[in-house]
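Reviewer comment 2.1 asked that we show a complete input and output for one of the modelled complexes. We chose the zinc ion case, as it is the one discussed in the main text.
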Amino acid sequence: MISIKTNEKCHHCGTSSVLVESEVVIRIKELLQPNFKTLGTSVAVHGNRYHPICPSCDSYALGLDLVEAFPVLTQSGKITTIHDLMFMDSSLIDKKRQSLVTSLKECIHRFHSSEEDAIWWAAENEALRLMFQYLMESSALSVTPELLKAIEEDGFSDHATSVAELLEEQANRLPDADRRVVLDCFEALWQGGEDRDSQSLNMFD
Ligand SMILES: [Zn+2]
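Response of the prediction step:
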């Protein structure tokens, strides 16, 4: 086992970072072209370069959706994959959801605190995009290849309405905790103002 002295935690969600080799990062970029959220500057570990990364915030980049995920090195020196990490620590999924809720709250705040169309429109879009991405990564949202392709080609905002419809349609099929996030977010966005007083248990209040 390789011993690693760092004890780094993710600034977003508090999960212990893992290390991913520079060479692997290159492969990830080629294959997935992800938007890394937490990829850190490389450090030398026994002669190889590794980047710290959060396995929860960047689970997609680490190959969550792939049959064979990319190898990562834990801080205890174990070589593993995102699949095994998720399996061993189901709280990772909870942390991921919490980090989503935190980001959604920011969007909802921006949405309600601006008079400018462009700002609330962007905030709404961002909220939809975050939920869509999270659900694609972590649970059974069924999306047609056509929609995915269209999003890839035109950008998310052109298809935000389709995504909103899709989330609404499929909300009842999602795991309980995910369904609550989606429905509460919709409610916080679109039934703002006085109506929200009756929803005091809403996680977005
Ligand atoms: Zn994180």
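The helical segments are 22-32, 82-88, 91-113, 117-138, 145-154, 160-170, 176-190. We note this here for comparison with the apo prediction described in Section 3.2.
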